[in-house]
Amino acid sequence: MRALNQRLVLDRLREHGEATRPEIAGHTGLSKPTVGQALLDLEQHGLVQAIGRRLDRPGRAAVVYRTAPDAGHIVGVDVGRRVVHVAVANLDGVVVARVEQPNRSRSGAMLVRIVGESVARAVAEAGLTGDDIVVTVVGTPGIPDTDTGTVHRSPNLPGWERRGLLGELMALLGANGSTVLVENDANLCAVGEHARGAAQGVDVVACLTVGTGIGMGILVGGNLFRGARGAAGEIADLPYGRVPAGVTSHRPGPVEVVAAGDAVVSAARSAGLSLSTAKAVFEAARAGDERAVRVVADEASKLARVVSVVTAVLDPGLIVLAGGIGRNVDLLADPMRRELAETIPLVPDIVGGELGDDAVLVGAIATAMDTAWDLVFERRVLGR
């Protein structure tokens, strides 16, 4: 019962922030003496701290408590095709060190090494050691299968699908006892936008990430929906009715082939533009180049068709566009809405992500925080 009371008090402080003993008692239903004992115990375990006093009633100042953010540290990793991003944070989610490492890997083993070195450098820059890290959360394209130690459906990362490679990465990052979790990057993007970005407070969210590849993270009731085998949101292989220029097969091309970054560049070149990146195509459209404007309009139409399917299945309250292409919401959202209004009865709100390149990292840190507090409580209070 004593440990249960401590957990109730800790959860109250985590959810609502700093509070006095009477405030905690009012929110938890525990008596003031019980709350006082729980706070004393949690202080001794290094999980909460007194941060000052404030007037509780006239003439009486009450001690204000909050969680102890340095009770442990966590790491978030975003494994991208071009860059590996790493952030180290305390248990409040405040980032204390960041590392960005170009991803020039030509094999899965090389990428494992890059990730490991990047994490080690970030931890050192934070003035910590591997022993200080409670949880590490890695975001990766594809479907992580921790049972076999393999990432499935991640063709944009050379060698990343090799059987057992994920297990090697987890063993490397967990060598000092850190719990290692691996999650799809679009899922973490959705978590990040729900925690700190455009999707805060929305119950059903689909976060559509469009860049080098295409993916989708789904939140229902604020929780990730992964499906039976972790593949929910893998929309890259949805059939698509149009064959892109230069493709001779008469089979419908999957969504990623017709709407991801390479497809935008190919469409621009077919229109007579000598541009090498999707970013440049969108910049040309903003500058008024009619050829680029047509390419962007076509991209918006493709994405609208994807959203129409997603809406029919999920009925999301919000579509968040993210990724290198998706972030161009100023050019994409209005034409998408117009096309959707002509094809489906209920058009969801469409907004751009607010976290930019940090969305996956923010989601990784948010995920790590929840797990880390559970682990720290178990270790310090329950002795497990």
UniProtKB/TrEMBL annotation:
<dbReference type="GO" id="GO:0006355">
    <property type="term" value="P:regulation of DNA-templated transcription"/>
</dbReference>
<dbReference type="GO" id="GO:0003677">
    <property type="term" value="F:DNA binding"/>
</dbReference>
<feature type="domain" description="HTH iclR-type">
    <location>
        <begin position="9"/>
        <end position="49"/>
    </location>
</feature>
<protein>
    <submittedName>
        <fullName>ROK family protein</fullName>
    </submittedName>
</protein>
<dbReference type="InterPro" id="IPR036388">
    <property type="entry name" value="WH-like_DNA-bd_sf"/>
</dbReference>
<dbReference type="Pfam" id="PF00480">
    <property type="entry name" value="ROK"/>
</dbReference>
<dbReference type="InterPro" id="IPR000600">
    <property type="entry name" value="ROK"/>
</dbReference>
<dbReference type="InterPro" id="IPR043129">
    <property type="entry name" value="ATPase_NBD"/>
</dbReference>
<dbReference type="InterPro" id="IPR036390">
    <property type="entry name" value="WH_DNA-bd_sf"/>
</dbReference>
<dbReference type="Pfam" id="PF09339">
    <property type="entry name" value="HTH_IclR"/>
</dbReference>
<comment type="similarity">
    <text>Belongs to the ROK (NagC/XylR) family.</text>
</comment>
<dbReference type="InterPro" id="IPR005471">
    <property type="entry name" value="Tscrpt_reg_IclR_N"/>
</dbReference>
